[in-house]
Design brief:
Distance between the termini: 79 Å
Order of helices and strands: HHHHHHHHHHHHHHHHHHHHHHHHHHH
Shape: elongated
Number of helices: 27
Helix content: over 70%
Largest sheet: none
Length: 500
């Protein structure tokens, strides 16, 4: 009986473990999962690996057995490129000879590769570092190395993108990596290996560097706006991508602003970090803290809009696309420019004079600058309310009335300023959607939130274009009525909030 118990012990433990992992009560399912886990997690055999390397290694099959899937894909692409240019003998020698050399080196390193493959079944915190200088050099070999595949393999994705679009900086960066790989990458890999063993992580706010920023500015990367993507300015990066760096003018002028872009990005992350420390009540983060407590920057970042970039994107819009509003994140106006071809080019000319006000309006709307008197008015209300409530607990109604009166008196200038700003912005947008072709069906009534009027004019072709012509003169009054209704509704909501 004891022998039976000892023989069944390991099997029962294995079955219980599988049952816990799968949550299954079916005996057939448990056995099937056990067989699958056994096959999948089975250690790789050195003899089998040598057999596949010798007979099928030129096709990269041994890489599949050793769980080196990226290496297998590279082998397939390498062979495809070689056989595609068989008529060029020198080209075949340049690619076939290195391929055979790599295949021979894999045979010499087979024991090490098998050890790495078997290590994949060990939990992640106990893994050894699978990278080596040899593997990095393997991906450095052209043509893939010129595209920066060795950077992709080592996890430097931004460098991979910059190499991909600049062909390894026209070959100079690729040649320089021949020297930098052993002296630059290996210490970092070794340090990451030690950190993983000791379960430590070095705390940094971000990993962006000025050197990488300059690499992103280099052509053809900068022509696609990669330096703006790198610094987190997504809307400006899209404008550069669509206009080839502002027809190269913006790209050239950005040469003198790269340090400013990096400093602006660093300050933004620093503000996030300070806010994160206050919210979590953390002074210094040690290396042994829980991973969930580590600071992670939030993307995308929103930066203060500038006149310089507004006019660069305006110039690159070429009367039609309205990229200046894409940069300012005025999505409704940008869509109107696309649908009306920049208001037949008229609104593009008008934008030259209105861009400064649009920049200020966009910064206020995004919360990048304070509105006129907003904080002062809010502080006065709260301070007056707190003081009077403390001094006169029996006169609550008088306090509310005095707060409302002081609030209205102090906000007269601000309300006028905001109303005029909103009026100019809304008037511009309404006239933009009035232009044909979308104006002929009354699309501007959607912006004015008069949906019944829009449906009526849609099915009557704007009263056979008569209503469209009349609305050319009625739009200012329609916009004023819309803003006054919104203002009265906001005031009522604000007064109810104060009374409560």
């Amino acid at each position: 009986m004891s022998s039976l118990n000892t023989n069944n012990g390991p099997n029962t433990k294995k079955e219980e473990k599988t049952k816990l992992l799968t949550g299954s009560n079916n005996r057939v399912e448990e056995l099937a999962i056990q067989d699958f886990l056994y096959i999948y997690n089975h250690e790789r055999d050195k003899k089998t690996a040598y057999f596949l390397w010798f007979f099928l290694g030129l096709g990269g099959i041994h890489h599949i057995y050793l769980r080196r899937y990226l290496h297998f894909i590279i082998c397939v692409l390498w062979l495809w490129i070689t056989f595609s240019f068989l008529y060029i003998k020198m080209y075949v020698l340049c690619f076939a000879v290195p391929y055979i050399v790599v295949w021979l080196i894999d045979g010499l390193r087979m024991q090490h590769l098998v050890d790495i493959a078997n290590n994949d079944i060990v939990p992640k915190e106990k893994k050894i570092n699978p990278w080596s200088v040899y593997d990095i050099y393997l991906f450095w070999i052209p043509p893939f190395g010129i595209g920066g595949l060795h950077h992709f393999y080592t996890g430097y994705y931004w460098r991979f993108v910059t190499y991909l679009f600049s062909l390894g900086f026209i070959g100079f960066g690729w040649l320089l990596d021949l020297v930098l790989i052993p002296c630059y990458y290996y210490p970092k890999l070794k340090q990451s290996f030690l950190n993983k063993i000791e379960n430590k992580e070095v705390f940094v706010k971000h990993h962006k560097t000025k050197g990488q920023l300059w690499m992103c500015w280099f052509p053809f990367n900068g022509w696609l706006g990669l330096h703006h993507y790198y610094c987190g300015d997504i809307s400006l990066g899209i404008c550069y991508t669509l206009t080839c760096g502002g027809w190269l003018l913006g790209w050239l002028l950005d040469l003198f602003l790269l340090n400013h872009f990096y400093r602006r990005f660093d300050e933004n992350i620093e503000k996030q970090h300070d806010k994160w420390k206050k919210e979590n009540d953390i002074g210094n983060v040690s290396a042994t803290d829980n991973e969930s407590k580590h600071f992670r920057p939030k993307y995308p970042l929103i930066f203060k809009k500038t006149y310089y970039h507004a006019y660069i994107t305006w110039l690159s819009g070429l009367c039609v696309f309205g990229f200046q509003h894409l940069y300012l994140q005025n999505w409704i106006i940008f869509l109107g420019h696309i649908l009306t071809f920049g208001g037949a080019g008229i609104m593009w000319i008008v934008d030259f004079f209105l861009l400064p006000s649009f920049v200020r309006y966009s910064n206020e709307r995004l919360g990048l600058i304070e509105k006129v008197g907003e904080n002062d008015v809010g502080n006065n209300i709260t301070n007056n309310g707190d003081n009077k409530m403390d001094d006169n607990n029996n006169n609550n109604n008088n306090v509310i009335i005095s707060n409302l009166e002081s609030y209205k008196n102090n906000q007269v200038k601000q309300v006028q300023y905001n109303f005029e700003t909103e009026y100019r912005h809304a008037l511009y947008t309404t006239y933009l959607y009035w232009f044909p072709l979308i104006g002929l069906v009354g699309a501007y009534y959607i912006y004015l939130r008069q949906y019944k009027q829009f449906i009526l004019r849609l099915f009557t072709l704007n009263f056979f274009l008569i209503g469209w012509i009349i609305d050319l003169f009625r739009i200012p009054s329609l916009v004023r009525n819309k803003l006054k209704e919104e203002e009265s509704q906001n005031n009522n909501n604000r007064n109810e909030h104060l009374i409560q």
